[in-house]
Amino acid sequence: QVQVVESGGGMVQAGGSLRLSCAASGSIFSINSMGWYRQAAGPQRELVADISSGGIAVYGESVEGRFAISRDDAKNSTYLQMNSLKPEDTAVYYCTASVRRSPTGPSFRFWGQGTQVTVSS
Q1: Residue 45: CB partners within 8 Å, gap ≥ 6?
Q2: How far apart are CA 74 and CA 71, in angstroms?
């Protein structure tokens, strides 16, 4: 099995910064993309940022220019640096990893439990 664990959430004032960390562990041969989604009120999860195995990053429109995603393949980890935070960034942030568990097997997407980010005005 594969576990995905986030850390680094918390409460911050508007204009502040937070850095989220995420580590995948368990039965992992390789990791394709890793990313962050967030969910505020309601069932819909919104893409925040995603980074491919080649280091190509894509961002949600609402965070472009303020957030930066990175990854450390040696640690099976990804990080989200969040700057210039706004109250509308308040949400539960979920980490996801697309994992291949064998050289010839398919990739499966695994999710963490989420970490709360609250931005006060």
Answers
A1: 37, 38, 39, 94
A2: 9
d(CA 43, CA 57): 25
Q: Give the angle subtended at the CA of 48 by the CAs of 46 and 51, to the nearest 5°.
A: 125
Task: Give per-residue pLDDT as tens, 73-121.
Answer: 999 999 999 999 999 999 999 999 999 999 999 999 999 999 999 999 9
Mean of pLDDT over the chain: 97
DSSP codes, 6-40: EE--EEEETT--EEEEEEEEES-SEEEEEEEEEE-
How far is it, in rounded angstroms, from Cα 24 to Cα 79? 12
CA distances from 55 to 49, 82, 83, 96 (A): 12, 18, 20, 15
Strand partners, 30: 100
Report the C-alpha gap between 18 and 8 in whole angstroms: 7
Other Cβ atoms less than 10 A from the Cβ of 40: the count is: 12
